[in-house]
């Protein structure tokens, strides 16, 4: 049996301090596991750099083509590689050293970003190259999520998930705005190059990890490994239901695709309103992570997921009501366009969206903790891979729902109807699965 490393939580369990009773985010994961702290810092900086490149590529494609459809295809071309990488990367994480698998995945992203920078500096960039390298850039695996439970004791997994919410908040709030400034003042080559530099921090975080071999029976990557994971999922009602609940929320409560039209014709303010509405979701997620102390102390994670998603649904419905108020002429100025905005309703809309971001992040904390604590180590990579497919596919289905229903009715209808559907459907699904409501974090069962 290998000797535990100094970063192994088994050598530190007895030294854990008593649970904190304040309302701020629990920072003990940084103190308990320096390896987790290094990985978190590296992932946050690399994620911020990734947002710079994502936004820069979209701006770059629009500059070369002048076609908004071509810009939308940047996300589409990366969907299939993301799904394949999620599923296959999960199988690799369950069969090989997870540190090595994560390093290989990071290397693919690093090389693709470096090629983007080289092409931009040399002036040989093209739409085809931007599409191809963006697709390669989307190849991220489920390995890092499967690593976390091996670095921390189970009782600190909710705190680790909350810290991930901080990472996402920083990425989504700061990344797009910073990308726009960098492209405007320095150009695409410098923007891609800055991402290359930030990516090196992820390598430092991964390189200093101990070897993390999967525990239990190892199944060779391939179709049988995937089937093995699906068979386990059939026997894991709690994990299966959290997937279904997340898809429900993202399908009926993801109106981001409508934000440009809302800013242009309904609330006014144009792109500024679009950016403000988008940023408010991330701000809500960031704030809920910052004040996440009580979340980690609540042991009934199934109930926590149900209630947070239903709050998400109610806030989404209220957002629809705010839009309906403008469409029906309530509290509306005589003129609304890119230069004239309904500030009062925009502020109300931002508040409701901030609530959706906060509620979704609380749900994500409980869902991530349940996944990492209840799923056996030998299955963790594959189940994280399936979860990545859910996370990647849900918002895209949501965009289709919102766009179709708004075209057939009005811009406010998808959010109002979708929010009410979420509240009702989640209530019914959880009621039909009493074991989910009884899920106890101190005795996790998949």
TrEMBL record:
Membrane protein topology class: Multi-pass membrane protein
TM ranges: 39-62, 68-88, 100-121, 127-147, 159-183, 189-209, 243-266, 272-291, 311-331, 343-362, 383-403, 409-430
Coiled coil regions, renumbered to chain: none
Compartments where found: Cell inner membrane
Keyword ATP-binding found: no
Keywords: Cell membrane, Membrane, Transmembrane, Transmembrane helix, Transport
A Gene Ontology cellular-component term: plasma membrane
PANTHER family recorded: ENTEROBACTIN EXPORTER ENTS, INTEGRAL MEMBRANE EFFLUX PROTEIN-RELATED
UniProt protein name: Putative MFS family arabinose efflux permease
Species the sequence originates in: Microbacterium lacticum
